[in-house]
Structure formats: C-alpha cells, structure tokens
Amino acid sequence: PWAALLYGALGVAAALVGGWWPARAAAGLAPALALKGLGTAAPPVRRHGIALGLVALAGLAALAPPVAGMPLGAYASVGLLLVGGIAALPLAVGALLQRIAPWVVHRALPLLAVERARRLRETAAVATSGVVASLALSVALTVMVASFRDSVTQWLDAVLPAPLYLRATGGGPDGVHLTPAFVAGVRALPGVARVDTLRALPLQFDAARPPVTLVVRTLQGEPLPLPLVGNPLPVPADAVPVYVSEAMLDLYGARVGQPLPALAQAMASPEAQAARYVVAGVWRDYARQHGSIAIDAEAFARLTRDTRVSDLALHLREGTDSAGIQAALRALAEQHDLAQAIEFATADQIRATSLRIFDRSFAVTVWLQAVAIGIGLFGVAASFSAQVLVRRQEFGLLAHLGLTRAQVLGVVALEGLAWTVLGALAGLGLGLLVSLVLVHVVNPQSFHW
Asked: Backbone phi, then psi, for 295, in 5-degree steps?
C-alpha cells in the first residue's frame, strides 16, 4: 500500500507540474490580443545543447559504480536518456523532414503536412513525446528480456550435457546424500555409459552476506562442462584449480590467475584449509546470484576425505531407453531404502521447467509494455484532438482555397502518419540505447551477471 501511495503521489505531482507549465504561459497572455488571435507568437528557435548534454551525461552516469549494491547511476542514465532524447526530438524531426521536403514539393497535400511539421517541429515533438517515451521503454524491456532468455537457454544447454539427472531430495542446506553403494549400483546399470557426480554445499565467506555455494562436480575433459566466460588459465602444479562465478568477481574481488584465500578459510578440514586455491577461470551461473565456486570432485575428496554426493548426471549409451533406465533406478533405490528420497528429470524437462519459470517471472513486463504503449497512444490522440480544435481557422482557409473535406482530413491524417512514424523511429533508437544500459550495466550491477 505504501509503495502504491508513493507512485500515486508521484503521478499526481507530475500531472500538476505538467498542467502548471502551460497554465503559467497562458496566464501571461494579454486578453485583448488573445481574443484577436494575436497573443500567441511563434515559439523562439530552441537551442538543443542542453538536450544533447543530457544524453552525454547519461553516458557518463552509466559508468558510475553501484551504490550499496544498487545501480543508481544506471537508473539515472535511463532517466537522462529519456528526457534528453525527447528534448532533442525537434532536432531529429527537423533533420529528417529537411530531407523529405524536396520529395513532396510538387504534391499539395503531402507538402502541407510535411511543411507544417517541419516549421512547427516543437509542436510535433510535443505530440509524439508520449509515444517516444512509451515505445522506448517497451523496446528496452523487450531487448533486455529477450537477451536474458537467450543467455539462459544457452546456459542450460551448457550445464545440462547429460540426458538424465537424478537428485536426492529433502534435508538441510547440504541436502540428503546418496550412499556410495547406490552410486556404484547406478554406474553398473546396463545402458549407463558414464555417471558424473555433483554436490552443492554452502560456505560462509562473509557474515553480512548470504553463503557462497561450493559446487563439487566432475571437472574433467575438454572442453570443461562449465559455461566459461573466456578461456581458462593453467595454475601452478602445487595449487588446486577452482572456477568462480561472475558474482565472485564483484562481491569478493576474485580474479583469474590469483589465489582465493577466502575459500581455504571457509573449508572445514585442516588439509583443505592448508591447500592453495587459484582461480583458473570464470563461469556463468544463473542459478546462484550470491556467488559460487566450482571444484573438481576428485580434488575435493582428496582434500576433505568427503565423497558424499547429492546429484547424478547419467550419460546413456546410444539407443538406451530413458524410461527403462528410470525404472531400473527406482528398483535400485528400493533396495537401498532411497525410494522416497530421490527424483528424476530429463534434460528436456529441466530446460522446459526452467524456461517456464523464467517466462512466468517476466510475464509482468508484457503488461507493463501494453500499459506504456496505451498511455503513449492516448497522449498522441489527445494532443492531435486538441490541435485539430485549435486549427479550425486554418482548415476554414484551406476549404476557402478549394480543398474538399476529404482532402482536409487527408492533410491531418498525413501529419499524424508523419509524426507517428517519426516518434516510432525515435522511440526505437532511444529504446535500443536504454537496452544497452539495462543489459550491460543494470544486470551486472544488480545480479552480477
């Protein structure tokens, strides 16, 4: 309720300011001149240095670091881009219509529409500013969500190399563990070519932050079964290679090729605490926002004498039926009293579930886009309606010069088409600029990917 009241108050304040500005100008008119239609002189030619300066300032604000973990500079950059882009709209309108004018010089109706928009570009900018802002935000959200979804899809393809997965369910932060005998039984099943193990356990690096997840998994082969960002580096022979997520770079200052002493301090066994861990690479982890570290299962077992696992990735032999393997796994789980503590999923099921959750999480953006576009179009319609009422004398003159009612309507329609196309082009370009800030600044500073 408090957030709704705050946004409602901001909307009322914006409406009051928007109404006060033209009312103040109207109050300064001389009544006698206004009654004769002489009190509304053409607006002076505006300089667009401030508008272009706002756009340049938006670029500088996007470079600002986060404040208390929030991308305030990026939010300011988005606001400055919108304000500066709309304020510079008359400049863009004039430049474009200047090029279009020679093409319509011998066509009466298009000439009337283009010349009025070109010589009263401030009015055109006001009429289209609503659709520019709404379309810019819609384009920016569309690009950001599409970019993120495509990245998640590629990430799922990288982290789900096996066709079938088994996991232990329930338990505490470290989960329920599969017994060595059960894992050995899974490896011995006909049709199973290879079994990769996985375990995720929390490590407390900083009491003021959520735990970092240590991902213990099989890290053998070329390429590594991790969605790496860049190429991995070799580490010294006496060091243990680890791979950190992007969040570790921002939150804990991890760097490729550098030791990670915080990991040794967080380990439980003395031998693991005495080991030297070096960051061999960075990987993309969309599942854990607060940081994760991947370490090879064999190295972890050697240091801690802990071989427990909670997840299995089953690589099947060619031609093996996944349903038959799942039936064999259930029978094996019954023998080890694990029937109620495990669950199966194919890679396709995990991928479909993950993308369904993603789409549900961002479903609100579709409605936000619809609302924004609706408000923008309503603003354009209201602006055109007001201008048509004001221009009745102009339309009477055109009728006196011989234009039919249909031709007058055609002039208005052509103006509306020209202004809306200009607004759409400007909104598209401005939205792409805003999307750059969202994808490359807001996402990394907010979520560390």
From this structure: -135, 145
H or E segment and range at residue 79: helix 72-87
Using CA atoms, how far residue 266 sits from 286, 304, 307, 308, 444, in Å, is 23, 12, 18, 18, 26
Convert the pLDDT of each residue in 258-313 to its tens digit: 999 999 998 988 999 999 999 999 999 998 889 999 999 999 999 998 888 999 99
Cβ(236)–Cβ(175) under 8 Å? no
Phi, psi of 215 (to 5 degrees): -95, 110
Provide CB contacts within 8 A for 283, sequence distance 6+: 226, 227, 228, 229, 243, 244, 245, 246, 294
Which residue do the tokens 């500066």 mark? 84
Closest by CA position to 213, among listed 302, 85, 311: 311
How many Å apart are CA 429 and CA 218, to the nearest integer?
46
Collect all residues with Cβ–Cβ distance below 8 Å to 413 and sequence separation of at least 6. none
Alpha helix segments (H runs only) across 253-390: 261-266, 270-274, 297-304, 322-335, 347-361, 363-390
Q: Report helix, strand or coil for 373.
A: helix
- Separation in Å, CA 196 to CA 39, 67, 227, 313, 425: 82, 41, 16, 5, 52
Say if residues 291 and 247 touch (Cβ distance below 8 Å).
yes
- pLDDT tens, residue by residue, 333-384: 998 888 888 898 999 999 999 999 999 988 888 888 888 888 888 877 887 7
Query: Does the pLDDT of residue 175 top 80, yes or no?
Result: no
Residue 255: per-residue pLDDT:
93
Q: Residue 15: what residue type?
A: A
Q: Which residues of 265-281 are buried (b: 16+ CB within 10 A; e: fewer)?
A: ebbeeeebeebebbbbb
C-alpha dihedral sign at 386, 391, 395, 398: negative
Nearest to 58 by CA among 35, 42, 38, 76: 76
**Contact, 437 vs 57, CB < 8 A?**
no
Token pair for 342: 């495990």
SS3 163: coil
Cis omega before residue 163 (within 30°)?
no
